[in-house]
Amino acid sequence: MTDQLASVRYVVDDVPAAIAFYTTHLGFTVRMSAAPAFADVVRGPLRLLLSGPASSGARATPASLSAAGRNRIHLVVPDLDAEIRRLADAGVEFLGDVVAGPGGRQILLTDPAGNLVELFEAAAR
């Protein structure tokens, strides 16, 4: 049900490329596609709204805020090293190295439009 999903909108420059990235590499499924303007993809309780240049969501964004920001979606994975290997084998590039802290380990990557995605593995309890 849509009311049980947390929705995030990412403005992208190429909706089909974003769909391919999120479904191929990060385990999302397509709920609805009106490409090239818009798509709605989900992974668990996360609904990611991919808004292309022709979409109302992108047109409502002020030009001064058109660049991808520092905000990111946070995807929990059970084995960060395995995910890094799998994605690297598929040609996905990462931003920096794995960062570890008391809560776990994480690494950043970007989607084709430059939006940040964080892969996170929680520390053993």
Task: Please supply descriptive tags for the structure shown above.
125 residues, alpha/beta, 2,3-Dihydroxybiphenyl 1,2-Dioxygenase, domain 1, 4-stranded mixed beta sheet, 3 helices, 20% helix, 41% strand, globular
Describe the structure in your own words.
The structure is a single chain. By secondary structure, this protein is an alpha/beta fold. It has one domain (2-60, 68-122): 2,3-Dihydroxybiphenyl 1,2-Dioxygenase, domain 1. The chain has 3 helices and 8 strands, in the order βαβββαβαβββ. The chain has a 4-stranded mixed beta sheet. Strands 5-8-7-6 form a 4-stranded mixed beta sheet, with helices on one face. The model has no long low-confidence stretch (mean pLDDT 88).
